[in-house]
Amino acid sequence: MALVLLLSMPCGLAIGGILSETDRSVRSIVSGIVSYTHWPALSGKPNLCIFASSHYVEALSSNGPDALPYTPVIIHDDRDALNAECHALYFGNESPTHQLELSQAFHARPLLLIAEHNPQCLTGSAFCLIIDSARVRFSVNLDVLSRSGVRVNPDVLMLARNKKHE
Predict the structure, then answer these.
(1) What's the pTM value of the predicted model, to 2 decimals?
(2) Cα–Cα distances in Å, from 127 out to 17, 99, 107, 117, 154?
(3) What angle do CA 18, 24, 79 make, to 5 degrees?
(4) Most buried of 32, 39, 99, 109 (most Cβ within 10 A)?
(5) CA distance 56 to 43
(6) What is the maximum alpha-carbon separation in the chain?
(7) In sequence order, which residues have a C-beta less than 8 Å from that of residue 159 and are 6 or more positions away?
(8) Are strands 127-131 and 136-140 parallel, antiparallel or unpaired?
(9) Residues 6+ apart with CB under 8 A from 30
(10) Kind of pairing, strands 71-75 and 47-51?
(11) How far apart are CA 55 and CA 119, in angstroms?
């Protein structure tokens, strides 16, 4: 009976109910970063290309009670990323070197880069999530961000300096 009830629920509600607190935090932070980013000549939602290697694919791509400020596109490799119309890339297990190499293949197109596994944030992505058991934070590589071709609201950058944000 419970299975029938669960299957009859709208998909968004079912998905929203199974996301962990960390999943919701990652979704919230990534959504916030994207929503405060401006791409030149873009009208409408940007495409966030999410590598399938990410631990948070479901959290970042599922329909839930809150609308996403981006259109999720799941990609499996560099070829998928280059063929998709990506405005932002969300890296999973890809190394910082790989992040840098792939971003250079986009030939100076405006591109927001967010990494899940790049805690030092010294190269590769502009925004790097710092995920531990208690909270999710992020850091910013201003050098990468300044070369990205996108503009991010300064308030987001200030949040990266605040150790209390989640």
Answers:
(1) 0.85
(2) 27, 12, 20, 11, 13
(3) 95
(4) 99
(5) 27
(6) 55
(7) 138, 165
(8) antiparallel
(9) 48, 60, 90, 114, 129
(10) parallel
(11) 15
The helix/strand count (H/E) of the chain reads as: 8, 8
Reduced to 3 states (helix: H, G, I; strand: E, B; else coil), residue 62 is coil
**In this structure, which amino acid lies at residue 62?**
S
- Residue the block writes with tokens 């890296």: 91
Distance in angstroms between the alpha carbons of the first and the last residue of the chain: 38
Residue 31 three-state SS: helix
Cβ atoms 127, 113 nearer than 8 A: yes
Which of the four CATH numbers 1.20.120, 3.40.50, 3.30.70, 2.40.160 does domain 2-161 have? 3.40.50
Residues 6 or more apart whose CB falls under 8 angstroms from that of 36 comprise 152, 153, 155, 156
Looking at residue 66, what is its pLDDT? 73
Domain ranges for the chain? 2-161
Sequence-separated (6 or more) residues with CB below 8 Å from residue 87: 39, 42, 46, 47, 48, 70, 110, 111, 112
| 117-156 pLDDT per residue, tens | 998 999 999 999 999 877 899 999 999 999 999 999 998 8
**If you search the block for the tokens 């890339």, which residue do you land on?**
89
Tell me how long the chain is: 166
